[in-house]
From TrEMBL:
Organism: Salarias fasciatus
GO MF term set: metallocarboxypeptidase activity; zinc ion binding
InterPro entries, alphabetized: CarboxyPept-like_regulatory, CARBOXYPEPT_ZN_1, CARBOXYPEPT_ZN_2, Peptidase_M14, Peptidase_M14_domain
Protein name: Carboxypeptidase E
Active site: E311 (proton donor/acceptor)
Bilayer topology annotation: Peripheral membrane protein
Length: 449
C-alpha cells in the first residue's frame, strides 16, 4: 500500500492554508483541450503512486476522453473497495464542472501529499475516477465564442450537435412496463443494435460502465443551481404545463444524497438561485421537467451505480474571475458527496468452498431494486440507517437471508455463503421480458440538464 508523504500534524484549517493557491482557487482558469490534458498529466506526474490516466474512447473529432484515477493501487479493483466517478462537461458549453474537476484532481493530489488524513483515507479506501470532459468537441465550439458571447445552446451538443444527455438507451419505458408486470427491477437489457444508435461519446461512457462496477456517481452540469435526482423521465404522458414526481424505489436515499451535496455547498441549499426556487436546493428530475434517455436514469437502471445530476452555476460559461468563487462554494460538497459511497452495507458472496460468486443478486426487502456482485464476488448496497432484511441469490445456489442494522457511519460488512441447490430445486429463471419498448415521441425540452 502506497503511504502518504506525511508532514507534521497540522489542524485541518492550517492544512488547507498550507496548500496555498491550490485551495484558495485563485489560480483557476479555463482549459482548452490541450491545456486540460497537460493539467491532468501534471497531476499524474506530481502524484504518480496514487494516480493513473486512461482513455475510455474518443469523441467524434478524435479527442480522447481522459479519466484520472485516484487509488492507493491505481489500475486495480480491490475487493470491498467501492468505485466512484465524477463526470463533467457532458454539455460542452457548461464548463464549471469541467474546471471544478480539474481543480478537484489537483486538490486531491496536493492534500494527499500534505498528509490530510481525510483525503488520504478517501484515496486509500476508494477507487475514484474523474472524467473532466465527456464532450471535448462541444467545449471547443463554446470556447471559441468565449464567456462574453456564448449562447445558451452554442456547443451544448457534440460535434454532430447531438445532446449527449438525451442519447442513452431509454430503459425507463421498459422499467415502467416491468413495474406493471412484476418484471425485472435492475440491470435491464439494452435494445438490439444499441451501439449503432448512440454517439461515440455515449458509447464510450456505456462501455466504461460495463468495465467498472461503479457504486456512486455525479454528473456536473450548469444553467441552474440544484441537486437533481432520478427519475428524470415521468411515468405519466406529458401534459403541457404539468410535471409529475417520478420516484425510484430508492427515493429516500436519493433525496439524502442530493441533500448531502446541497447542504455542503455554500449556497445551493438556500433554495433561491438563478431566479428559481428549489426547496433545500434539491429536486426530482421529472418533477422539474421530464427528460428521456438521460444518463442518471440509465446508471440506475443498467448498472449498480446511483447517480445524481448537479447543476452548479447560473452562468453556463462564466468568466475566469468567477471560477474561484465556484471552487470555494463546491470544494467541501465534492468531498462530502464522495464520502457517501462508504455508507450502507457491503460484503462478499461465496460458495461452499469459499470461491467468490460473481453476478449474484442482493435484494433488500421493501426496496424493489436489486444490485449484483462484481466479478470478484463483492457487492455494495447504499442504504439509509435502519434495519434491513437482505437476501443473496445466484443461479444454482440456495438463497440466503440475513438481517442487518445499518448505522450512520461506515458501511456494515455482511458476507454470504451460498450452498449449492439440490438438482430438483434448480429452476430456470423466467424471461425478463421484451428487450425494448417504444415510447411515444414528445417535444424535446432543452433545460439545463
Amino acid at each position: 500500500m502506497q503511504q502518504a508523504r506525511v508532514l507534521p500534524r497540522l489542524s485541518s484549517a492550517l492544512l488547507l492554508w498550507a496548500t496555498g493557491l491550490l485551495v484558495s482557487g485563485s489560480d483557476l482558469q479555463h482549459h482548452r483541450y490541450e491545456d486540460m490534458v497537460r493539467a491532468l498529466f501534471a497531476v499524474q506526474s506530481e502524484c504518480p503512486y496514487i494516480t493513473r490516466i486512461y482513455s475510455i474512447g474518443r469523441s467524434v473529432e478524435g479527442r480522447h476522453l481522459y479519466v484520472l484515477e485516484f487509488s492507493d493501487n491505481p489500475g486495480i479493483h480491490e475487493a470491498l473497495e467501492p468505485e466512484f466517478k465524477y463526470v463533467g462537461n457532458m454539455h460542452g458549453n457548461e464548463v464549471v464542472g469541467r474546471e471544478l474537476l480539474i481543480k478537484f484532481s489537483q486538490f486531491l493530489c496536493e492534500e494527499y501529499r500534505a498528509g490530510n488524513q481525510r483525503i488520504t483515507r478517501l484515496i486509500h479506501d476508494t477507487r475514484i475516477h474523474i472524467l473532466p470532459s465527456m464532450n471535448p468537441d462541444g467545449y471547443e465550439v463554446a470556447a471559441r465564442q468565449g464567456p462574453e458571447f456564448n449562447g445558451y445552446l452554442v456547443g451544448r451538443g457534440n460535434a454532430r450537435e447531438i445532446d449527449l444527455n438525451r442519447n442513452f438507451p431509454d430503459l425507463n419505458a421498459l422499467m415502467y412496463y416491468y413495474e406493471k408486470t412484476n418484471g425485472r427491477n435492475h440491470h435491464l437489457p439494452l435494445p438490439d443494435n444499441w451501439e449503432h444508435q448512440v454517439e461515440p461519446e455515449t458509447l464510450a461512457v456505456i462501455k466504461w460502465m460495463q468495465n467498472y462496477n461503479f457504486i456512486l456517481s455525479a454528473n456536473l452540469h450548469g444553467g441552474a443551481v440544484v441537486a437533481n435526482y432520478p427519475f428524470d423521465k415521468s411515468r405519466d404522458p406529458r401534459i403541457r404545463g404539468r410535471t409529475t414526481y417520478a420516484a425510484t424505489p430508492d427515493d429516500k436515499l436519493f433525496r439524502k444524497l442530493a441533500r448531502t451535496y446541497s447542504y455542503a455547498h455554500s449556497w445551493m441549499h438556500k433554495g433561491w438561485n438563478c431566479g428559481d426556487f428549489f426547496d433545500e436546493g434539491i429536486t426530482n428530475g421529472a418533477s422539474w421537467y421530464s427528460l428521456s434517455k438521460g444518463m442518471q436514469d440509465f446508471n440506475y437502471l443498467y448498472t449498480n451505480c446511483f447517480e445524481i445530476t448537479l447543476e452548479l452555476s447560473c452562468d453556463k460559461f462564466p468568466p475566469e474571475s468567477e471560477l474561484p468563487r465556484e471552487w470555494l462554494g463546491n470544494r467541501e460538497a465534492l468531498v462530502s458527496y464522495l464520502e457517501q459511497v462508504h455508507h450502507g452495507i457491503k460484503g462478499m458472496v461465496y460458495d461452499e468452498n469459499n470461491n467468490p460468486i460473481g453476478n449474484a443478486e442482493i435484494s433488500v426487502a421493501g426496496i424493489h431494486h436489486d444490485v449484483t456482485t462484481g466479478v470478484d464476488g463483492d457487492y455494495f448496497r447504499l442504504l439509509l440507517p435502519g434495519t434491513y432484511t437482505v437476501t443473496a441469490s445466484a443461479p444454482g445456489y440456495l438463497p440466503f437471508t440475513s438481517t442487518v442494522t445499518v448505522g450512520p457511519a461506515e458501511a456494515i460488512q455482511l458476507h454470504f455463503y451460498l450452498k449449492t441447490a439440490p438438482k430438483q430445486s434448480l429452476k430456470a429463471k423466467p424471461h425478463s421480458g421484451r428487450k425494448n419498448l417504444s415510447s411515444p415521441k414528445a417535444p424535446l425540452k432543452l433545460g439545463p440538464r
